[in-house]
Amino acid sequence: MEIETAAKILAELGNPVRLKVVRLLVQAGRDGVSVGRIQDTLKIPASTLSHHLKHLKSVGLIIQRREQTTLWCVMDYNLLEGVMGFLTDECCFGLPSENTKKNLITAVAV
């Protein structure tokens, strides 16, 4: 994943309401949740929810589908896992210690 893409997605997740929506969708699983149920569960006005869903949809985190009069939101788990992987892919490889860094600089200067 490109750093710019990850930054945009993480920026959208930085909002508390959007983070609550994402957590609710993750709990729901691959079937998703209706917009009405998200609104009822999170106790937020429809216009506010619509605004936040628009942001999540704009970066591809959620997919919406309509079934007659019901709008469903489903998490794009592949994208979410991609962001998590972006953050953790290089976990625990370590960085050179500060002493190693100083020794490299000294060796180059000599």
Any chance you could write out the topology, listing elements then pairs?
Blueprint: H1 3-13, H2 16-28, E1 33-34, H3 35-42, H4 46-58, E2 62-67, E3 70-75, H5 77-88, H6 98-109
Antiparallel strand pairs: 1-3, 2-3
Radius of gyration, in Å, reads: 20 Å
Mean pLDDT: 90
- Predict the CATH topology: Arc Repressor Mutant, subunit A
CATH architecture: Orthogonal Bundle
Describe the 3D structure.
The chain has 110 residues and is an alpha+beta fold. The protein has helices spanning 3-13, 16-28, 35-42, 46-58, 77-88, 98-109, and strands spanning 33-34, 62-67, 70-75. The chain has a three-stranded antiparallel β-sheet with strand order 1-3-2. The longest helix has 13 residues, at 16-28.
Summarize the structure.
The protein has 110 residues and is α+β, with helices and mostly antiparallel strands.
Features:
single chain, 110 residues, alpha+beta, Arc Repressor Mutant, subunit A, three-stranded antiparallel beta sheet, 6 helices
